[in-house]
Specification:
Elements: E1 5-9, H1 20-29, E2 34-36, H2 45-55, E3 58-63, H3 83-100, E4 104-106, H4 118-142, E5 146-149, H5 166-176, E6 181-186, H6 187-193, H7 197-204, E7 208-213, H8 230-240, E8 245-248
Parallel strand pairs: 1-2, 1-8, 2-3, 3-4, 4-5, 5-6, 6-7, 7-8
Length: 311
Amino acid sequence: MAPLRFAANLDWLFTERPALPERLEAAARAGFRAAEVPGPYGWCPTLLRGAADRAGLDLVLINTPPGDEDKGEKGLGAVPGCQAAFREGLALAVKYAKTLGCPRIHLMAGRLPAGTEQAAMALEMEATFIENLRYAADILAQEDMTGLLEPMNSRITDPRYFLTTPHQAAAILEKVGRPNLRLQLDIFHCQIMDGNLTQNLEMYFPLIGHIQVGQVPGRHEPDSPGEVNFPYLFQLLESLGYEGYVGCEYTPQGEWGWSTGTPAHTGVEPGPQIGAFSPLRAPSNCLVCSCPAPAVPTKWGELRWRPQQLG
């Protein structure tokens, strides 16, 4: 059995470092060899790729842009009337993924429109999602990339998110019928919505393209007190032959999470010592967009470089 491979989610880990390139360095110092960068869009992708390469990190997952966060948007994939905006965001995500060398994109479903209810919108939102997923699958196939669907729990995290269970996601994947679309299973969300983790992992294993972890209910590191027996689940994943990454998406109680007493099979080892990164140490002319990269991260969508020039 191959040992599991873990990836640091840099929206959740090392957040005491405001600059995303600094978080990449911190992840490498902690022993990670891979990272999830859900929201890279405030940074020049060439700068991020260079920082990841210097740190020896593979970038394994990004999200599609969430839309207008000031309006409460959290993805547009299933939101009726937003097909054009979804396609625009997908194009930007693909351009980023190509530059970052990232093979997976989480296609965010989004929330129920304000003032609506799940029962009234379910069929229309599912139809919109299926339409957008088929379009996305065709685009991603051209780049040999995988699109991921992640159910998020509606009991603690987001009561208005459309995609909430692996059962719902699996049904949609079956209707879309594209082999390069897969299930992104977050153990935290799955435990809250359904539990029955052993059977769910075994049942949906053929569909799983990525896994994330966080203890329940506090969403802390896997060895913190909580409902989930992660040593058992990690052994189960290894026995099933899981070869993908396990994303560490949790709020750490320590500096970054697991203590030095973590079992060796987690795959996290002491990292290399890397020279300190200065956010201002960016190329004067970006190799991709011919712009100075931002020295500090910005909100998603407030891009300080010209995405239309991203090749």
